[in-house]
Specification:
Elements lengths: L1 H6 L12 E2 L3 E5 L4 E4 L5 E5 L2 E5 L9 E2 L9 E5 L5 E6 L8 E8 L2 E2 L3 E5 L9 E9 L5 E8 L11 E9 L2 E2 L3 E2 L10 E5 L2 E7 L4 E7 L6 E10 L10 E5 L5 E8 L5 E8 L7 E5 L14 E4 L6 E6 L6 E6 L9 E3 L12 E3 L5 E7 L2 E8 L11 E6 L4 E4 L4 E8 L5 E8 L2 E6 L4 E5 L5 E11 L4 E3 L3 E6 L6 E4 L4 E3 L1 E5 L7 E5 L7 E7 L5 E10 L7 E6 L2 E7 L14 E12 L4 E7 L8 E8 L15 E3 L6 E5 L5 E6 L4 E6 L5 E3 L6 E8 L4 E8 L1
Parallel strand pairs: 33-40
Antiparallel strand pairs: 1-31, 2-31, 3-4, 4-5, 5-6, 7-8, 8-9, 9-10, 9-11, 12-13, 13-14, 14-15, 14-16, 17-18, 18-19, 19-20, 21-22, 22-23, 23-24, 25-26, 26-27, 27-28, 29-30, 30-31, 32-34, 34-37, 35-36, 35-38, 38-39, 38-40, 41-51, 42-45, 43-44, 45-50, 46-49, 46-51, 47-48, 47-50, 52-53, 53-56, ...
Amino acid sequence: MKKLLLVIGLFPFLYGTAQNLGIEVQIGTATNGCVAVGPDGLIHAFYDGKYRAGGNINSMGAEEIVATSSCIGYSRMVIDKDGNPHVLYGNNKDGKSKNLYYATKISGIWQTPVIVASETDGGRTADRVDVPDIAINENGNILICWWHFKDETASNPKPEDVNAYRWKINGVWGNVTLLSTGRWESTPKVTYHNNQFYMLAKKSDKTWQCLNPVNVGGTFVNSGTDLGSVTGNKWSNEGSDFDINNSGHIALMWDVRKSDTEAGFAGSVYDGSSANAVYIGKTTSDGTHGGGQIHPFVEWDLATGEVAAISGMDQDQGGAFTVRDVNGNWSLPVKINGTVSYYRWGGALADLQGPGWVLLYQKAGNIYLNTLNASTNPNSNKYPIVSISQPANNATFNTGSNITFNISANDPDGNIVKVELYNGTSLLANLSSSPYTYAWNSVPDGIYNITAKAYDDSNAVSTSATVKITVAAPVSYCGLIEAENMNLAGYSVESGSYASGGKLVKASSSTTGASGTISTTISCESKNYDINVAYYDENDGLSTFTVYINNIAVDTFIANKDLGYSVPGAANLVIRNCVQNILLNPGDEIKVTGIVDNKELARIDYIEILPAVVASETIVEENQSPTLFPSPVENILYYKGLQPKHATVYSIGGTVVLIKTLGEDNFIDVSMLPAGLYMIRFDTCDNTYTLPFIKK
């Protein structure tokens, strides 16, 4: 140990207050996993392709299957501002993943995982793409990175060991970029702080570098920040992590190989002048084992300003954690009882927004959650606590509105000096006394990301969670409303040339009994309306639909017309006149739920909200058949024998070419149609009639 302390510059090894470990709670059966805490304090756990979330470790929800492969390798997870998880994982438990997968949960539904990295990315064939990391900003833009490694062979004794990264900007994945073509013997790590993404990498001269991009989606550049040299004569190419606190200080952890029989992990906190590196602990308690990859992970407690680090120990020894207090003192490593597997120690520490952390670890093939309280140093300055209490996140306002912001700020052990309110990086207000309130008047159209910063009398700074607001002119949601433009929960969008607007929605799950909901809030004038729902009635199931107005069911029906097709198309589109002559007011919500049956996925094309039509007094004989005239027709096509609500005209190929809402008139203008053979379908309250006609 003395030799190693000389290498790192004789930094003192100080011991802080002992930590209090909570009671472990088993949440699953697995040998790898990661944990994250959302902006609302919800704990998210991902392990072996499964996911659970809950308000605390004793109230985790049911398991949700994210990936069905039996080989789920090293994983990492972040939570966006709306509380949605985003996970990265490999596909091989032995640490040699050929592909890297990404999955996310949106509106309560896990989206289909996608491959975001493969062995051939970056113009080179690697033996593994593994040990990933992920960061996300308040706009939902994502940066991922991973270790792009080629195994050493007799013909390739010094393989390239490079870092790669990739952006997801505005929902679109960019190209894979190799960060270096030399031997950077480390896995890259990324984080997001103060409107910038940062990446940690280890150069071939064993120097840590912190890189930052010019902007989101830009090219990484060396920011000139070197964080000191790696300690140890032999050092792992897999173990490192870092975190940045509200003051911009960097906490850094890495694993150390002093020799074949002595290994451990070291840490530092970079404050702008020195890295303050300290050798923290050996891989094993007795130093007799060579040690496995240690995979340390570090988190900064934003409430106390302390740093926690957790590391896998030797394969038969378990894991350990240590804490650095605000005075720079590292505590003795405290062992976590139980086995930590060689390759499967991932992302196992998250800030509870404190003080304290939540831990995830495995032993005997089971995954456990536990909590770790931060030390209570009476001389430690605690960070301010700040939040925006008004308006709510994702609130919407009309153009030119006056918007009032209320900020809650307090300091656990001192006084608040000032509060700053920001729109992105632009300062809106500087507030020096409570109540912290600001009125932003005549706000123009736009989407704004609002944060507040609180400063205490010891110069500690905390930043609130982002509140997103949208300012736009009111939209009149009446007439035809495409289902894909409504609020979707349990529904997803699919394309089809036969659909209005070329798109429709279907239930996201194909399991019988699964349900989905589409909804919208109207803002048109108060009057009486008819409401129609256009849905697809396939013959491979009996989906059930229910229409609600302000959460009151007004119509329920089953798709059981047996129109002869098991796939959606023009021939089985049904327009149902669900509600007639009902009073609607601005702000009313219209909602449609669909329930899956067999292979019928409760598909919906659109809804219509139309001024109520007063029934005609024309009497139609019960057995009278509908007829069209003239045919061939040049301009005006007449019909008789029925009182339809809608008419839909299809080309001979089944494409919708005209949709007409019908009133008391008994004709349709088809003058705009090219010459040819067409089919017209009339929808009444109870029946559907399809007839041919020829356009001159």
